Fold this protein.
Amino acid sequence: MIKIKDLKANVETDDGAVDILKGITLDIPDGEVHAIMGPNGSGKSTLSYVLAGQEDYDVTGGSATLDGEDLLEMSPEERAAAGLFLAFQYPVEIPGVNMSTFLKTSINSIRKQRGEKELDALGMLKLIKTKCAELGIRDDMMKRAVNVGFSGGEKKRNEVLQMAMLEPKFCVLDETDSGLDIDALKVVADGVNALRDPKRSFLIITHYQRLLDYIKPDVVHVLAKGRIIKTGGPELALELEKKGYSEFVEEAA
Amino acid sequence: MSGVSEETIQTVTDMAGKYSAGFVTDIETEKAPKGLSEDIVRFISAKKNEPEWMLEWRLKAYRKWLEMPEPDWAKLDIKPIDYQDSYYYSAPKDHKDGPKTIDDVDPILLDTYAKLGIPLREQEILAGVQERTPVAVDVVFDSVSVATTFKKKLAEAGVIFCSISEAIQEHPDLIKKYIGSVVPAGDNKHACLNSAVFTDGSFVYIPEGVRCPMELSTYFRINELNTGQFERTLIIADKGSYVSYLEGCTAPMRDENQLHAAVVELVAHDDAEIKYSTVQNWYPGDFETGQGGIYNFVTKRGMCEGRNSKISWTQVETGSAITWKYPSCILKGDNSQGEFYSVAITNGRQQADTGTKMIHIGKNTKSRIISKGISAGKSNNTYRGQVKILAGAEGARNFTVCDSLLIGDQCGAHTVPYIESKNKSANLEHEATTSKIGEDQLFYCMQRGLSEEEAIALIVNGFAREVMQELPMEFAVEAQKLVGISLEGSVG
């Protein structure tokens, strides 16, 4: 269960601190998929960064817990070990580090933090092979440097692969649909759907309703100017799509 | 890419005092009187029971040294060296020159090397064979070689692997023919000093047509206070032979600077190949003040004497207060090839000025330079390289890549290439980049569970990968760890 309460955050700019999140309250029970929609600049990506512990943002109030554990007290890697996974909007390139080395280091860092036994080379190979097969990812991707020269679709599929391997409790997908054509979108959505589990919850951040055709959310929240202005079922996304953000935000105000 | 946070810089800074090889071995030593003079040169030569011609060669070098100026063209801030305030010979007390096996070695020394992760007992190495291929080691402690392993096995293949002192006694013709043939005694002040006072080092001869059956290596350890190490290595690969050789170096943490002025000469005849790798981890000095540490002033040069010969230098330089080092290739034989792969990491107050020279003389000669410099803390890291194509080097080719990675904003990275071509058919390429570790890269890794230290080690190893993969397998893992340790402290 993820519980976010009155979460506030700002970012330092040349003109002083600017408030981005102005009090977000949100509960996501295990097994549920929540979507957050909102116009550009509403604070969607900031929310994902703040939850994951990016240091550019200062949390100025409120709380966020995962299964009762205070996320805001933890370093980014501790949050990862606690079960938080962020699928990045712009996955980062790491030249010279191949995918299998990266995955191995990642999984074993998390296992080490959890006090579990590290996987040996063989165990790792097996796990990678199984997960790649499930997601239809070709083995040769594992020999390439992390995200270097990956197409938009490959980058996002790579995020889903990592999500599948790390088996998180809570997944945040930050505009995973941006830059994807319909085919790639479907592949990514299938991957996410395969990971749906009564013990796992999702927060899907998106600008468009399109992604939600493929990943059916239980709850939809609309975010504007750093606040959730409306919460409803999947039909809310359709309404939003029809009216457009400006009209919708005006009505809600 | 955004800049690096204060905390990242702090993490890197925290490596101070984490130098794990910094212990001192308590062993009784025999030393020459302090200082440098003609008498000291004679003392060393006498200690080694050298023939007259060797002593003469040394004395000539010494006289030349007295007149030579210190090289001052590197981007290094070097405090004046008091050559009289150092010992030029220091050996464990019961040391005798000549052929030795591990059974003759003082157990204290064996323990020292075990602590450094260098197994010396052949039985133990062979017992662990499933895990790692056996490697023959020549072990140099302060001024002398204390043991050489697997000599018998190598002798069966016709390979000579012994200390240079032993080679002077046992193989004088080879020494006379080759010593100083690639790096003349008067090449530069540091090489000249070495020629006068070198005390030991390794000698390798691979006969015609032989592929050396195992990796060869020398492990250099400076232990004694105020002692310089002046080793000399000579490797000759006869026609159609192959050898891969690796050297490693460590020293205790001391407040005084210590001088390490080595000379390495390689000679590759027709169709021969020498692969020479270095993992250099001398004590870098105090992190904050820069006090102490090794002055690593090394002259390394390879002669591609024969047609189709090849010499490849790979170096991972993480230690030393000051590094002045340019492993080079003279490409004399037609179709010969020279390679230089380098990772140089500086942190704290370290200074490195390192690179290579590729001198193309023969036709269709090829050279390749891949240099990766990583600077952190308040350090300075310079790549200095020369590519020279002589008039007769028809069809010569060079490819150079110099990449620099900066961690923090108080360090420096500099690239100084010299390119000179006297032949119009030559083809030269030079690429250079400078980048910073991005906060976005670190965050991405940390979101996947890596600590900041692990993330830096991973990113830097990725940056240096092209070079790291040139290292012999047996050492690649160690070197990767060392990259982590030299930038962070706790990995390993």
